[in-house]
Design brief:
The complex is a heterodimer of chains A (230) and B (299). Chain A is an alpha/beta fold and 230 residues long. Chain A is built from 6 helices and 11 strands. In chain A, a hairpin with a 2-residue loop joins strand 4 and strand 5. Chain A starts with a strand and ends with a strand. Chain B folds into 2 domains: 193 residues, no CATH class; 79 residues, Alpha-Beta Plaits (2-Layer Sandwich), CATH 3.30.70.3040. Chain B is elongated. The chains are: A alpha/beta (230), B alpha+beta (299). Chain B: One of its GO terms (cellular component) is plasma membrane. Chain B: It comes from Clostridium thermosuccinogenes.
Chain lengths: 230, 299
């Protein structure tokens, strides 16, 4: 699914965002990427999305080598990814339904199917009653759910959620995490970045990637809550 | 293709939305393109009319040979036979004074009453010689040299003047096509760049979702097409009106000018202008799209 070998990322201004990252994520895993603000969590997600490219090392996402020269193939790869952006990136002036449908229009899915997928995705996030509301009229939490619906309606192999719990109170943050983790199955990997570690401390059956100053450590927890540090 | 067709409604809706986002600028661009196309259309129609007039006049290339008033019918008949034998002549006939008078009456139309001012028929009989234009010089020389021929009149000067006007119009037409092309490309590409800038966040999101450049860019190509085709249609409407009025005026005041069919002219101009509009719309959009490649929100 994701394979990183000695991956480093240095930005143009010289900042070393990630250093010698070695990581393997298998299909169907639930992965939490944690760490304080500015630790490199979002940089790691940017590498998985092909927004940034490793300055050294080798990274493969869904079998695709992530190099700048593969930009066209990486754009195609993104069609298999369901991104949930920190700032949602919903398109204003459109309804929730239009936003969710827009993410599927170029995937070769028949029009009727696109609409059905959008309706069921909005229902899954509890927003079917807001399907025809303009996104700028939705609350923060509702907009986030639309963003999740847009990501999952595409039936992606990989869901990447960047700080989905930011700006949410404890209860709503837990709801969003429960919602996101519910999309994990044997074919769908879910990767969530968060700095709110208290929300996931009891989480079982998941992989925890801790990022600190560009270095990572990995912990895998199985059903029995047994910890395995790598 | 299937995906393209199923998204056609979306593309049209998006194009409409992009136009509405910057409505005033788009209206002025549409009007500007229309007027530029109108100027182009007028120059092209002048060029076409001139060329067709020359063609028509060339088909009717003829000289009039005037003989001595003292010549009797036999002498005139002999002259006719001699002229017929000249290489490049394909028809010779004697036009009597009465026929010459009647022809002038036809040419003058409603103004023919002016001829009543003459006591006698002012026109002389002459020999009308239809020729191949490329042999005009030689034929003129040979006919003028015949005994009994007093003078020869030809329409070479008229043809040459028309030819030079048409050549000037042709050069002007080519310049106009270049000017219209560049102006329209600049207008359209500017509007597309502005549309892309206004929608940079949406474009960036679509790219992150994996949308191909063709999916993101097609609504902008439609906007370019809408602007130039709209301008082309406006130009065609204006040109149809001007040509129809112009033909009405010429046919009344200058009935002897052989104009090509107005209907055919407008139909051909419509086809040409719409084809040029469509081409410039697509080219301008592609230019606008490609020029933003490295900018934020590029497609």
């Amino acid at each position: 699914m994701i394979e990183a070998k000695g991956v480093s990322l240095r930005y143009k201004d010289g900042t070393l965002a990630l250093h010698n990252v070695n990581l393997e994520i298998k299909p169907g895993e639930l992965v939490y990427i944690t760490g304080p603000s500015g630790s490199g969590k979002t940089s790691l997600l940017k590498l998985f999305m092909g927004v940034e490219y490793p300055t050294s090392g080798a990274l493969k996402v869904l079998g695709q080598a992530m190099f700048r020269r593969e930009a066209m193939k990486i754009r195609k790869l993104r069609r298999k990814i369901g991104p949930v952006f920190q700032d949602f990136r919903l398109i204003e002036g459109r309804t929730a339904m239009e936003n969710v449908m827009m993410g599927m229009r170029f995937l070769g899915i028949p029009s009727r199917q696109i609409k059905q997928n959008a309706i069921s995705a909005l229902a899954r996030v509890g927003l079917e009653h807001k399907a025809y509301s303009r996104v700028e009229n939705l609350s923060w939490g509702e907009a986030q759910r639309v963003s999740i619906a847009r990501a999952v309606a595409r039936k992606p192999a990989l869901i990447l959620a960047d700080e989905p719990t930011g700006n949410l109170d404890h209860a709503n943050a837990l709801n969003i995490l429960d919602l996101l983790t519910s999309f994990k199955d044997k074919n769908t990997t879910v990767i969530i970045t968060t700095h709110a570690t208290h929300l996931i401390e009891d989480q079982k059956n998941a992989t925890f990637v801790r990022v600190n100053k560009g270095n990572i450590s990995i912990e895998r927890r199985c059903e029995s809550n047994e910890e395995l540090l790598i | 293709m299937k995906s393209f067709l199923s998204n056609l409604g979306y593309f049209l809706k998006e194009a409409g939305r992009i136009v509405r986002m910057n409505l005033l600028s788009n209206i002025f661009s549409f009007l500007g393109t229309g007027l530029v196309m109108f100027i182009l259309g007028m120059i092209i129609s002048g060029w076409w009319i001139g060329s067709q007039m020359i063609e028509m006049l060339q088909e009717e290339a003829e000289i009039s040979a005037y003989f001595s008033e003292n010549s009797d019918r036999d002498e005139v008949q002999r002259l006719v036979e001699k002229i017929k034998a000249i290489d490049g002549v394909w028809q010779v006939r004697l036009v009597e004074e009465e026929e010459a008078y009647s022809r002038m009456e036809d040419v003058l139309g409603e103004e023919a009453h002016i001829l009543e001012l003459f006591d006698d028929n002012p026109f002389e009989a002459f020999i009308e010689v239809r020729i191949h234009l490329d042999k005009m010089e030689e034929i003129l020389e040979k006919v003028s040299a015949l005994d009994g021929i007093e003078h020869v009149r030809d329409n070479k000067g008229v043809l040459q003047r028309l030819q030079s006007i048409t050549n000037a119009l042709k050069a002007l037409g080519l310049l106009a096509i270049a000017a219209v092309g560049i102006t329209t490309l600049v207008i359209v590409s500017h509007m597309i760049r502005q549309g892309i800038y206004n929608n940079r966040e949406q474009i960036s999101t679509l790219k992150l979702l994996g949308a191909p450049g063709s999916f993101i860019g097609f609504p902008y190509i439609l906007v370019g097409l809408m602007l130039t085709l709209g301008g082309g249609i406006l130009a065609v409407a204006l040109i149809s009106f001007v040509i129809s009025r112009g033909y009405d005026m010429v046919s009344v005041s200058l009935p002897f000018i052989p104009l090509p069919s107005g209907k055919v002219l407008v139909t051909d101009l419509t086809r040409l202008l719409l084809a040029i509009s469509a081409f410039l719309g697509i080219a301008g959009s592609l230019f606008g799209l490609s020029s933003t490649r490295d900018a934020e929100g590029s497609v």
